[in-house]
Amino acid sequence: MATASSTNSWLKAQRKGDLQTLAEKLNLKIPNGKLKSEIEATLDSYLADNAATLSSRSDLAGYYNSRSKALGSPLKRDSQSSRESIGEDVEKTLKVARRKASKAAEDMVNEVETGSTALVQTPGRTLSQQVARIPLPATPADVARAVDNSTVAVRNHVSSLYRDSGVGDTTVAARDCISSVHALVLIVAATELFFIRPAVLPSVYAFTVPASVNIVTRADWPVYLPDMFTLVSKFFWSPALVWFFTSFIVPTFAGFFFNLGATAPHSASGTGARTRARAAVQGPEYRVDPLTFSIAKALVSFLVYGQGVTFYGLLPETSIARLNGAVYGGYQGILTGAAITGIASFYDAILKK
C-alpha cells in the first residue's frame, strides 16, 4: 500500500464518508474505526491493483487521471504501487500485532497484580463475601418462626374482620334481649302459635314455582299461603279467643293482682331510709309477676284443655278440641311451657335477691 504521504491526491480530496461509500461500491470491506488516511491507503492499493478492470469507470476517472499525472509510465506506476502496497501491508500488520500483544500483556499483569494485592491484604473478607453469597437452607427455628408469624398475621386479620363486621355487638345485643323472663314467655307463646296457626288459619293453594326456577329440588313446587278470608269468620275467631283467654288474659290478671314481688322487701347492699325510699319510688320490678303468670296459665290450661271446663259455656267445646289437637303434645305441651317459664321466673328472682 502507499503511505499517507504518497496517497493519491484525488483520494485525499474526498471526505471520509465518500471514501467509505466508494469502498462499499467496490465491495471492499473496511473495518469500523479506521482512520481516513488508512481508508485512502486501502482504496489506493485496491484501485492500483485493479486498474485494468476499474479504469473505465466514470466515477473513478478522477483517481486514475491524478495517478497518471503523479506517475510516469503505466509499467512504473504499477510496479511502484505494488511495492508500496506490500510494504504498507507488512508494516501495518506488524504495528497492529505489536499493539495487541502489548495491550494483552499489560492487562494480564494488571489483573495478576490486582488479585495478588487483594488476596494478600484482605483474604478473610473476600472469603466471607463469597460465603455470604451462597444461599443456605433455613434452620428449623427459622421455619417455626415464619409459621408463628404467619399464624399471628392470619389471626389478627380474622379478628379485625370479625370486629369490623359488628357480629360481636349484634350477638351481645341479641343475648341481652332474650336473656329475660319476658322474652322466654314470648318465645313459649310463639311456639304455641306456630302449631295453632294451621288449625285456626288454614293454608290454601296460591301458585306453583316451576322447576326451571326452583334451583333446590328441580321440580314443581306448589306454594300454600294462609287463607286471609278466614279472619272474618267464626272459624278463626272462636279458637283464637279461647287461646288468648287461657294463655294471656287469665294469667296476666292473676300475675298483676297476685304480684309477690310488689309486696316483698327489697334487699340492697346499703340499708337505710334512702335505699328504702329509692325502692318505693321505683316500684316492683315486674308489674305482672312472671311466676304467678306461669302458675295461672298452667292451672287454666289444665282445667280447660285437660278437664274440658267451659266456664259455664263461655268457651266453645269445638274450639277447645281444635286447640287441644293443634298444640304440640296437647295440653301437656302447654303445661310444659308454663313449667319452663315458672322455673325461669323463680331462678331470676333468686339471682336478684
TrEMBL record:
Transmembrane segment boundaries: 235-258, 295-315, 327-347
Bias type Basic and acidic residues, positions: 75-88
Keywords, sorted A to Z: Membrane, Transmembrane, Transmembrane helix
Region of interest called Disordered, as start-end residue ranges on this chain: 69-88
InterPro entries assigned to the protein according to its UniProt record, in alphabetical order: Put_GTT3 (IPR038872)
GO cellular component terms, semicolon-separated: membrane
Source organism superkingdom: Eukaryota
PANTHER family: GLUTATHIONE TRANSFERASE 3
Protein name as annotated: Uncharacterized protein
Species the sequence originates in: Emericellopsis cladophorae
